[in-house]
């Protein structure tokens, strides 16, 4: 779906669902001033069009034993199609990587890594990342404290 086809009601639905994913359809419909059936049809259309990509529970990493988070910048030795495909395939298989972004600039990828502790990070780095063929350089930064972690996109600015 083209972002220009999202109207104020769609954006309101999305904003509410980002903050309150477990809200009932009846409550959601009431909040956006739609009938329950019209609301359900819109949510289903947003799901089918891929605008609503899924639903998830937000988990505190430290409370489940993942007390160390790091951002790892990776530079590849080669940038041909095969090298990129091999690296991204490996990243997809590593549970420790919770997000991976391709970047512009001097590093090629930024990995968000969540692990138990420094020993776990060291094993991940040595056994997986540095063993991945095609990795030329790695630079890691550890999270000391999370100041802000917005889990919702700033949709209110799109409503013209």
Comma- or semicolon-separated keywords:
single chain; 160 residues; alpha+beta; Arc Repressor Mutant, subunit A; Alpha-Beta Plaits; 4-stranded antiparallel sheet; 5 helices; elongated
Summarize the structure.
The chain is of the alpha+beta class and 160 residues long. It has helices at residues 8-19, 25-32, 36-48, 81-93, 118-129, and strands spanning 68-76, 97-102, 109-115, 135-142. The chain contains five helices and four strands, in the order αααβαββαβ.
Set out the fold topology.
Layout (H helix, E strand, L loop, with lengths): L7 H12 L5 H8 L3 H13 L19 E9 L4 H13 L3 E6 L6 E7 L2 H12 L5 E8 L18
Antiparallel strand pairs: 1-3, 1-4, 2-3
Helix pairs in contact: 2-3
CATH homologous superfamily of the largest domain - what is it? Lrp/AsnC effector binding domain/regulation of amino acid metabolism (RAM) domain
Q: Biggest β-sheet, characterized?
A: 4 strands, antiparallel
| Shape estimate | elongated
What's the tally of helices?
5
Low-pLDDT parts are none
- Structural class designation: alpha+beta
Terminal-residue CA separation: 18 Å
Task: Give the C-level CATH assignment of the largest domain.
Answer: Alpha Beta
Which series of helices and strands comes N to C?
Answer: HHHEHEEHE
Q: What is the level-2 CATH architecture name of the largest domain?
A: 2-Layer Sandwich
Strand content: 15-25%
Q: Please give the domain count.
A: 2
Would you count the extended β strands for me? Answer: 4
Kindly identify the CATH topology of the largest domain: Alpha-Beta Plaits
């Amino acid at each position: 779906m083209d972002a220009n086809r999202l109207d104020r009601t769609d954006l309101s639905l999305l904003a509410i669902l980002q903050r309150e994913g477990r809200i009932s359809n009846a409550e959601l419909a009431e909040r956006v001033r739609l009938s329950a059936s019209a609301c359900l049809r819109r949510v289903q259309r947003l799901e089918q069009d891929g605008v609503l990509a899924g639903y998830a529970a937000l988990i505190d990493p430290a409370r489940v034993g993942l007390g160390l988070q790091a951002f790892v910048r990776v530079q590849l030795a080669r940038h041909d199609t095969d090298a990129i495909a091999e690296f991204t395939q490996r990243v997809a298989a590593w549970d420790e990587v919770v997000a991976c972004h391709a970047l512009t600039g001097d590093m090629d990828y930024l990995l968000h890594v969540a692990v138990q502790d420094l020993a776990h990070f060291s094993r991940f780095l040595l056994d997986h990342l540095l063993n991945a063929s095609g990795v030329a350089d790695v630079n890691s930064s550890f999270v000391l404290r999370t100041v802000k972690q917005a889990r919702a996109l700033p949709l209110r600015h799109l409503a013209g």
